[in-house]
Design brief:
Strand content: 5-15%
Structural class: alpha/beta
CATH topology of the largest domain: Aspartate Aminotransferase, domain 2
Strand order of the largest sheet: 1-9-8-5
Order of helices and strands: HHEHEHEHEHEEEEEHHHEEHHEH
CATH architecture of the largest domain: 3-Layer(aba) Sandwich
Helix content: 25-40%
CATH class of the largest domain: Alpha Beta
CATH superfamily of the largest domain: Type I PLP-dependent aspartate aminotransferase-like (Major domain)
């Protein structure tokens, strides 16, 4: 079976985990601290706080901006439910915006139309790893903060800068199938030192000094800490951070390979009228190619055809506003039309050229193309 996603691990991740286990410190400790420092340096963003997941990062970002009951946050319809759930969990209301028909990123014009007196933030998603229209969104938002959902986009860049640094806060996911795959984990990044200080406390229940921080104190009150606000229990741990440090070393090369795979798909499928390919990346931008999503005629039958040939695919995503918990109260025609045809093809660094060719040939065979 050619899987749709798969992490790329080797003996380096194994040894990194063993080192942590042998150290006797596996929770929030020195590896988390090192990962936060190195990931911030990699992104060119001053501050990074590790979290237990990308969802936790989004929830933290919403809370850091003081968003709560009575507030509204604009989110794209084409995303994983974490993006909108984070808004609801804060007591606010997600306002869904439509997406662009080619990239499936949030449509800045539609987002602008949905801004109202209660709008407190816009959360663009860099769908599939392709940078959203940051310039258009910043213009539409004016003084409304952006929270960048970079779950797909570790290593992606716009105008030479890493995504995550254009808004007030950037949120990353390091889930098992992401480009930087820890197994589970996430992070918030930001320029604002005050928000970063709050984030470091908030991820550990609001406590101002973690257990690791207190190990260096040898005088009285070494056990003491202060809790100024009610925080969350969503910190990163040293086991996952150790994996992340190895993955971070591999990220540029892994993303380069993903770009090669995307190029092979494009070459093999670009002459097919039944298949709509993702658009080429805008000049000056770099996609992390977390996903390669086509829009295909007879999508469901094509999925069965590929599965019978040992090729796994996915659908990313059903538009969030269509789920029962959100009430289906509005029509977002671009996202809804795209949902009927989108199909995610296998994409991971260890995918071989021969396997990519097998996927291409199987798609061509379905449409009876030589």
């Amino acid at each position: 079976m050619i899987r749709v996603f798969r992490p790329s691990y080797d003996s380096r991740e194994e040894e990194a985990v063993c080192d942590v286990l042998r150290s006797g410190w596996v929770g929030l400790g020195p590896k988390v601290e090192e990962f936060e420092r190195r990931f911030a340096e990699y992104c060119g963003i001053p501050h990074c706080t590790g979290t237990s997941s990308g969802t936790a990062a989004l929830c933290m970002a919403v809370r850091l901006l003081g968003i709560g009951a009575g507030d509204e946050v604009i989110v794209p319809a084409m995303t994983f439910v974490s993006t909108s759930h984070a808004v609801v969990l804060a007591g606010a209301r997600p306002v869904f915006a439509d997406v662009l028909p080619d990239s499936l990123n949030i449509d800045p014009d539609d987002a602008a139309r949905r801004i109202g007196p209660r709008t407190r933030a816009i959360i663009p998603v860099h769908y599939g790893g392709r940078p959203a229209d940051i310039d258009g969104l910043l213009e539409a938002a004016d003084d409304i903060p952006l929270v960048e959902d970079c779950a797909h986009a570790a290593g992606a860049r716009h105008a030479g800068r890493h995504v995550g640094g254009f808004g007030a806060i950037g949120c990353f996911s390091f889930h098992a199938v992401k480009n930087l795959a820890m197994g589970e984990g996430g992070a918030v990044v930001m320029d604002d030192g005050g928000l970063a200080e709050r984030a470091a406390k908030m991820r550990w229940l609001g406590i101002d000094r973690s257990t690791w921080d207190r190990t260096g104190l040898d005088r009285e009150y070494w056990w003491e800490y202060t809790v100024d606000e009610v925080g969350m229990k969503c910190h990163l741990d040293d086991i996952h951070a150790a994996i992340g440090l190895v993955q971070l070393q591999k990220l540029e090369e892994s993303n380069r390979r993903r770009g090669q795979i995307a190029g092979l798909y494009r070459t093999g499928l670009e002459d097919m009228e039944e298949v709509r390919l993702p658009p080429r990346v805008a000049e000056g931008d770099v996609s992390s190619w977390h996903m390669f999503v086509i829009q295909a005629e007879e999508r469901d039958d094509l999925n069965v055809h590929l599965a019978e040939r040992g090729i796994q695919t996915g659908v990313h995503y059903k538009p969030v506003h269509l789920y029962p918990c959100y009430g289906q109260k509005q029509s977002l025609p671009v996202a809804e039309r795209a949902f009927e045809s989108i199909l995610t093809l296998p994409m991971y660094p260890d995918l071989t050229d021969d396997e990519v060719q097998r996927v291409v040939e199987s798609i061509r065979a379905f449409y009876r193309r030589p």
